[in-house]
Structure formats: C-alpha cells, structure tokens
Amino acid sequence: MSAKPLREEMPEVARFIDALRDAFGRDSVDPSLSRGLGGEPLFFAAEAGRRIGTALADAGAGQAWHAVCVHDRYYCQGCDGSCVGTEQRCAR
After folding, report:
1. CA pair distance 36, 45, nearest whole angstrom
2. CB 10 within 8 A of CB 52
3. Which pLDDT value is given to residue 1?
4. What CA–CA distances, in Å, run from 55 to 23, 41, 63, 67, 90?
5. Domain residue spans in the chain?
6. pLDDT at position 41, please?
C-alpha cells in the first residue's frame, strides 16, 4: 500500500495543493488543509468521486469554486492571495 494513497486517487487535487505550496509556502497552506480535514470549512476537495475536507454548509451549486478553472492562472510578485474572490485584478 502506498504511503500517500490520496495522491494516487486525487492527482489533480494533489497537483493543485503542490502549486499552492510552491506559491505561498507550506507554512501558509498546510494549517488550512489540516483544519479543513479536522472539520472546519477551510479546505474541501472532490475528484473522481472522492471527497476530503469540509465543505461550506451554505455553498449552493452556483457558489462552488472549481479548481479546474485555475490551470492557466498566475500569481503576482509578492501576492498573498488576499485579492482572491474580490474585484481586484492582478497588476501584471
């Protein structure tokens, strides 16, 4: 058995989390992952029928955010992610 079966079962989610860690650092990303896995609605992912983390209780179908839409995204130099979900556009 693999030490990291979720990496095999959810490869797109694993790549996305790796990209977040590369962009923002493990110290910024891992606490949210742990808290989401622990029951707080800070991290949730679904891929190929597998679900992990804690979904927002009030997230309706129109409010879902799909990671598949971020393949071609980039982060500005020094970005802290605070602009995500706002009308603010990147300075690039």
Report:
1. 10
2. yes
3. 45
4. 23, 5, 12, 14, 28
5. 5-70
6. 83
Which residues, in sequence order, are bridge partners of residue 76? Answer: none
CA dihedral 69, 74, 79, 84 (to 10 degrees): -20
Q: What is the mean pLDDT of each run of 10 residues along the chain (92 residues)?
A: 75 94 92 88 90 74 53 60 67 56
Strand, helix or coil at 54?
Answer: coil
What are the strands, taking DSSP E only, across 5-78? 44-47, 50-53
Reported pTM: 0.58
Q: Which two tokens stand for residue 87?
A: 């009308």
